[in-house]
Write a structure and sequence with these properties.
This protein has 559 residues and is of the alpha/beta class. The protein folds into 5 domains: 72 residues, Ubiquitin-like (UB roll) (Roll), CATH 3.10.20; 117 residues, Alpha-Beta Plaits, CATH 3.30.70.20; 56 residues, Phosphorylase Kinase, domain 1; 154 residues, Rossmann fold (3-Layer(aba) Sandwich); 99 residues, Rossmann fold. The protein is 20% helix and 22% strand. It is built from 13 helices and 27 strands. The strands form 7 sheets. The protein has a 7-stranded mixed sheet, covered by helices on one side. Helix 8 runs parallel beside helix 13. The chain is globular, with a radius of gyration of 28 Å. The chain binds iron/sulfur cluster (SF4) (3 copies).
Amino acid sequence: MEKIRIRVNGNEVEVSPDKTVLQVLKELGIHVPVLCHYEPLMPQGSCRICVIEDRGVLKTACTTPVEPNMDIKTDTPSVINSRKLVLKLLFSERNHYCMYCEVTGECELQDLGYEFGLDHFEFPTYERRFPVDNSHDFIMIDHNRCVLCRRCVRACSEIAGHYVLGEMERGIDTMIIADMNLPLGSSSCVSCGLCAQVCPTGTIIDKRASYLGRELQSDIIYSNCDLCPVGCGLEIYKKKGANFIIKIYGDWNSDVSYGVLCKVGRFLSLYDNKERVKGIRLKDEFGYRRIHEDDLLSLIKSKLNNAIAYVDGSLFNEELELIRELFKDKVYSIYPTESPIPTNINLKDLDNGSFFVVIGVDLNREYGTVGSFVKRNVIGKKAKLMVVDKGFNSLAKIADYVFNIKDLGLALDILKKEKEIIVIYKSLSKDEGKILESLSNARFLHLPLETNTVGLQKLRIKHDKVSAENVFIFGRNLEGIRDLPIENSFTLIFTPYENNQLYKGDVIVGVNDGFEREGTFYNLEGKKLRKEKVLKPAYDVIDLKTFLSYVLGKTEKVS
Ligand code: SF4
Ligand code: SF4
Ligand code: SF4
């Protein structure tokens, strides 16, 4: 593209014509303060903090495209005074007594106050009280801190795809609302938390993170969520020198999720209250008694002959490889691993979809980030949606077509007429698979059952029910034990959580999980992702990977 010539602060420069003034100034290394602007969101130019002067006229840098012969000035008295006046008005409009605010020290409004040297309220402060909405499980909204930048509204719709937030009233009475002014906790909010991540002030806050610490006091660790096979990118704020996580943000640079998270990855992973398996227990005639790690090692050595292993898809590639080596390939998956129709589309391609068919899965409840990708296209770009399910599916209310799964054949006439369709499914019967495979215009995204199901596929670990004298079971999701033929076996179970099936184990060993664990897994697109270890285990548990390495003689220390 041919470049155009403009002047910036007296210097001639050549710039691309498809940029905004703000983008050009940023590339030139010229600082422009912003408040409503936020890089992944569409610019809207409402706060007017970013004004610049062009040939004597003040313009918002974030929404003005560059054009030939511009004469941009970023530091004239008119620019500085205008920005300062806007800021003084913003500080006066609602309650911005920073020392009482949870986000003081990391608030973008406060930062601007320092940048422009505001040391008092120039105008009478507007003392009217706005409500505080504490109805939501994870988020609080204090409307008294709101600067009406609408970042939350844009993030909830443009990026997260949920279209919950909007505004009511006008001028100084404007308020951010959920749905038709419902308390957030009773609204259609799915708790993805993106609004709290982008809010520049202390208005929308993560309740759990409140008063735990500032970003400055945090080590930031980039990782991937391993709570479902999407594998969203995480930006984890761990308190420096402490063994806890303050909060989790979506990583804008993730080439899986591009900043989006669901409730599970952002909030529930930090509210983990499932009971942990601690220590090592051996069953005898009196019940279970604790044994030492050395006794476990001798026991394992005596039981490796005539042994098989069962695993689930929560295990990382490194753990699975060690288990395969230890059990000489006699390793079986507790759950089915096959994809009825293989995936042939990336998550990023969903943004170009014009017709989605979602089968047997409620994307507001599971695989939430995939739900965001679909919803932002269906609601925002008017892509079509067909929901096929056998019961209630909350996506149905935004769908163009809704079918019961047993009527899938009837949907074919509609689907054949489309140029291209994207089929997103969790499981399919053989007949349903055959019907869908007959569509030449379809691309498929399989939502596997477990985080590393694709890893199990790659390692050729198949679902089977095999019995043996000694059975080792490794995994987090152990409901499936009830169907395994292990009644007459000596059974050793390595798992992080208590489960009503654990009584079947002759030996039960507590292992690490969550942020105590590191390793790689393959997500539903087949991308190899890494989960970082962030915390030291707070319980008496073994590190499974280290332990397996020790049993195989690959390391000298057990933990
Ligand atoms: S948590 Fe997510 S869905 Fe709920 S209001 Fe915020 S951005 Fe929207
Ligand atoms: S709640 Fe936060 S993000 Fe939303 S408009 Fe107010 S200040 Fe901006
Ligand atoms: S969609 Fe899956 S991987 Fe992404 S945050 Fe939610 S649970 Fe984690």
